[in-house]
Design goal:
By secondary structure, the chain is of the alpha+beta class. It has twelve helices and 18 strands. The strands form four sheets. It has a seven-stranded antiparallel β-sheet, with helices on one face. A six-stranded mixed β-sheet has the order 11-15-16-5-17-18, with helices on both faces. A three-stranded antiparallel β-sheet has the order 12-13-14. A hairpin with a 5-residue loop joins strand 3 and strand 4. The longest helix has 19 residues.
C-alpha cells in the first residue's frame, strides 16, 4: 500500500512536493464515499483507494508519473552489472541556477507486510548522494540505514547490509545492492517496487501483452472476458490462438513487474505477439442471435476498445492482489462512462475488497464530482511563473456544500487550468 510519495529537483519539480494517499479528517456529504473510498490501516492511519490529478497541459502532472517510474526503475536496476559505467538518468529542474548542480530527491512511504517503511535517495547523474531507510516496528520510526556518498551506516536491525557496505558502487543504490546479495528484507522491498506499476494509457500495445497472458490462463480468462462484457462494448467473447504468447522483448521494462506475475522469463523462449480475436453476436431479420462473428482486434475494433481490452489485465491484477496502479492519460480514447465505471471498481468495498489503489491523471472534468470523490482524493498540478510545478489537494480549499467541483474548477477557483489569451483577433494580428 502506498502512503505518500515526494520528489524534488526533478523535471518540472523544483522544490520538494508531496503527493499523499492519507485520508484527511473530513466527511463527505455522501457517507457512502467515506465507507467505500477509504480504508483503515490502523487506529492512526486511513488511506484512500483512489486519487485523481488534474492540471493544464504542460503543468507537470505527467512528471509525477515519470518521477515514480524513475524511482521504481532505479531501485530495481541500479545494482545490475549492465549499469556499471552508465550515468544515472535523473533530470534536474533546468529553469533555475539554484538547482543545476543539486541532486534530485525521491522518497516513498509504504506498507509492506503490515509494517510502515520510509525509503528515499538523492542522486545526480554521476552518483548516489544520499540514501535512507526507516521502518516503524511498533509506534516509533527507527532507522535501518543511512548513506552519505560512500559512507553507509547500518543498524543492528538491518544486519543483512553489514557485509555489503563496501561493495556498493557510487552509481548504485545500497538497498538494491543488498538485495543482489540475497538480503531478505531488501529483496522484499524490491518486490514491493516490482508490484508498484506506473503505466501510460496511451501505450496500448505494451499493456496488451499482460492481458494476453491472462487470457491464456484458464483461471484468469473468464475474469477478463466478464469485465469487458460488463463494460458493454458489444464483445461477447475474446480468444487467442492457442500456444502463442507475446514476446518478452515487446513488453517495456517499466511494466514487466506485472508481466512477470504470469510468465517465468527465464524458462520460456520468446514467441511472436499473438493475434487476439473478439466475438460479436450475429442476428437474423427477427433480431435473434444466429451465430458469433469473429473480429481481429487489431483490424476490426475501435481504438477505444483496443485500449479497454489492454487495460483490463492490469486492472484485474491490481484489484485481485491489492496493489497500487498509476495510470497517466487513463481516459484517452475511453468514453467517460467507461472511465467512471473503472473508478467505481476501486471505490467499492465489494469489487475492491483487498484495498487496491488507483491513481490516475486526466483532463476529464465529467469525473470531477462530489458524488464520486472526497475532496482529499482530488489533486491539482500547476506551474508558477518561474516554471516550477506545485501539487495540492482540493481538501486545502473551503468548498460550499452546494458547490460543483467541475464548474468551479473550469471557472478557475482551484487554479491548475490553462490561461488562454484572446484568440478572436489571432489572424488579424498575424497578418498585420
Amino acid at each position: 500500500m502506498l502512503i505518500e510519495f515526494s520528489i524534488g529537483n526533478y523535471r518540472s519539480f523544483k522544490d520538494v512536493v508531496i503527493f499523499s494517499l492519507v485520508a484527511a479528517n473530513i466527511s463527505a456529504q455522501d457517507k457512502r464515499l467515506d465507507e467505500n473510498n477509504v480504508f483503515k490501516v490502523d487506529t492512526d492511519l486511513s488511506l484512500l483507494k483512489s486519487s485523481v490529478i488534474y492540471g493544464a497541459n504542460a503543468s507537470g502532472k505527467s512528471n509525477l508519473a515519470a518521477a515514480l517510474r524513475f524511482m521504481r526503475q532505479f531501485v530495481l536496476n541500479s545494482s545490475k552489472e549492465t549499469q556499471i559505467a552508465e550515468k544515472i538518468g535523473t533530470e534536474p529542474f533546468r529553469l533555475s541556477t539554484d538547482t543545476a548542480d543539486s541532486p534530485s530527491r525521491f522518497e516513498i512511504v509504504f506498507i509492506l507486510e503490515e509494517r510502515k517503511y520510509r525509503y528515499g535517495f538523492s542522486v545526480d547523474t554521476e552518483r548516489v548522494v544520499s540514501e535512507w531507510l526507516y521502518h516503524v516496528p511498533i509506534k516509533k520510526e527507527t532507522r535501518l540505514f543511512e548513506r552519505q556518498l560512500d559512507k553507509i551506516s547500518v543498524t543492528a536491525a538491518f544486519k543483512e547490509g553489514k557485509e555489503v557496505t563496501g561493495k556498493t558502487r557510487p552509481n548504485a543504490l545500497f538497498l538494491s545492492s543488498v538485495a543482489q546479495w540475497n538480503g531478505a528484507l531488501s529483496e522484499k522491498i524490491l518486490g514491493w517496487f516490482r508490484r508498484l506499476n506506473v503505466i501510460s494509457g496511451l501505450n496500448d500495445t505494451a499493456l496488451m501483452g499482460i492481458t494476453t497472458q491472462m487470457l491464456a490462463d484458464p483461471n484468469l480468462r473468464d475474469e477478463v472476458v466478464n469485465l469487458i462484457k460488463k463494460l458493454d462494448v458489444g464483445i461477447d467473447d475474446i480468444r487467442i490462438e492457442k500456444g502463442n504468447l507475446p514476446s518478452i522483448a515487446s513488453i517495456p521494462q517499466e511494466i514487466r513487474g506485472l508481466f512477470d506475475e504470469f510468465v517465468k522469463l527465464s524458462k520460456r523462449p520468446d514467441t511472436e505477439v499473438v493475434e487476439i480475436q473478439t466475438s460479436h453476436r450475429k442476428y437474423n431479420a427477427n433480431g435473434e442471435t444466429v451465430s458469433l462473428e469473429s473480429f481481429t482486434i487489431e483490424e476490426n475494433e475501435s481504438e477505444g476498445t483496443k485500449k479497454l481490452v489492454a487495460l483490463s489485465g492490469p486492472l484485474i491484477d491490481t484489484l485481485k492482489n491489492g496493489r497500487t496502479l498509476l495510470i497517466d492519460e487513463m481516459d484517452a480514447r475511453l468514453h467517460p462512462l467507461i472511465t467512471r465505471a473503472i473508478i467505481d471498481l476501486f471505490n467499492s468495498n465489494e469489487s475492491n475488497p483487498h484495498n487496491a489503489q488507483l491513481i490516475f491523471i486526466t483532463h476529464d472534468t465529467n469525473l470531477l464530482s462530489k458524488d464520486r470523490f472526497r475532496r482529499d482524493q482530488i489533486w491539482f498540478a500547476e506551474k508558477d511563473r518561474l516554471g516550477a510545478t506545485h501539487i495540492y489537494s482540493l481538501v486545502e480549499f473551503k468548498v460550499r456544500k452546494d458547490a460543483s467541483f467541475s464548474v468551479d474548477y473550469i471557472n478557475g477557483k482551484y487554479g491548475a487550468i490553462p490561461l488562454t489569451g484572446d484568440l478572436s483577433h489571432l489572424w488579424e494580428e498575424s497578418n498585420a
